[in-house]
Amino acid sequence: MKISKKVGLGDPSDNNQHFIDLKLKLLCCRYWLLDLWDCHDMVFPYWRIYWNKNEGGQLIHNDKVTSMSPEVLYIIPPFTSFSSQFTKNHIHKTGIHVTGKHLTNIIDENEYKERSLIHFFTHFNLGVPFDNVYPQIIEIELTDYLKERLTYLTERLKIENKDFKLTFNLKLQAFIKETLTYIGPELWKTINIDDRVLKVIRFVEINVYKKLSNAEIAGLVHMASNSFARLFKQEMNISVHNFIQNRKIAKACDLFEHSNNTIEEVSFKLGFSDRYHFSRVFKSVTGLTPATYKSGKYT
Q: Sign of the CA dihedral 289, 292, 139, 244?
């Protein structure tokens, strides 16, 4: 028997295998009763999965209104501009307005299903380059497996919604990954993007705190600025400038959620000229001011 040099990997074969490195990072997972869900022009740097146990929720993207069904999961990729509403209590035409409460095991859902939206959501990131797919709202029909996972997750969230045990974490990750397998292959073309574009994406991610010029970035791949800008837009469906802004705002959101940095400190760290410039860019990307995002008064 021939022994492979890769025995250190526990692999006795000489047949090289190539796997995709998907870096799933969980951000939140909640089960709520929503009385009001008037959220307009939201854009965030992470993935969302929404599911409503009852009728009445709507999602709006590019002027298309989608009435949400209990038999469907709704996936919203990062930087997708969308709005939401609960048709039985629709009040505000602008801004972010949400009222409701966490569902617990002492609440009878049946008492609320006619007047509230029974709403499950989870937010997560997948890492570069998978957080830069084409903006859209994706509908996935519930399979028996996904229904079983949802039942487990929602029942556990009624009992505990803060310090999750390993089993819950693993099952939530399995639920997200299983859901993503039903997305069409056209969404995942980012794994086949031009090597020059991928090199720049990785460079931006590593150097997100620095001020980056188009000339510097194009020079990394030995191209003229205009030529690389055309290539990047063709591959990523977004300009280099907007991509860099998006990554900086994504990092700002991460800092707001996982540090005590002030708005001024985050602005300075990310290379903005001042807080006001940072605030303008932040609102243009997310639809919210940094202060509103930092307060957590949105969903």
A: positive
